[in-house]
Amino acid sequence: MNCSELKEGQVLSCEGCGFELKVSKECKDENCSTDVCCTGNITCCGEPMKLK
């Protein structure tokens, strides 16, 4: 899951350590899904974080 796919209020969770991230504001940039910084998976403990 990358930042261009996340919506306000969603929570990402790490299955390894339990760390969680909550989206408080989603990206409104039309180019977000093509920017290099927004196309990779958000990771923790070496694995992609999953929606909770």
Question: Can you give me a brief rundown of this structure?
Answer:
The chain has one helix at residues 36-39; strands spanning 11-13, 20-22, 43-44, 47-48, 50-51.
User: Helical percent range?
Assistant: under 10%
Order of helices and strands: EEHEEE
Record field, number of beta strands: 5
Mean pLDDT: 86
Strand order of the largest sheet: 2-1-5
Shape: flat
Counted up, domains total: 1
Distance between the termini: 12 Å
Give unreliable regions as ranges.
none
Report the radius of gyration as a whole number of Å: 11 Å
- Strand content bin: 15-25%
What composes the largest sheet?
3 strands, antiparallel
* Count, helices: 1
Determine the structural class based on helices, strands and strand pairing.
Answer: mainly beta
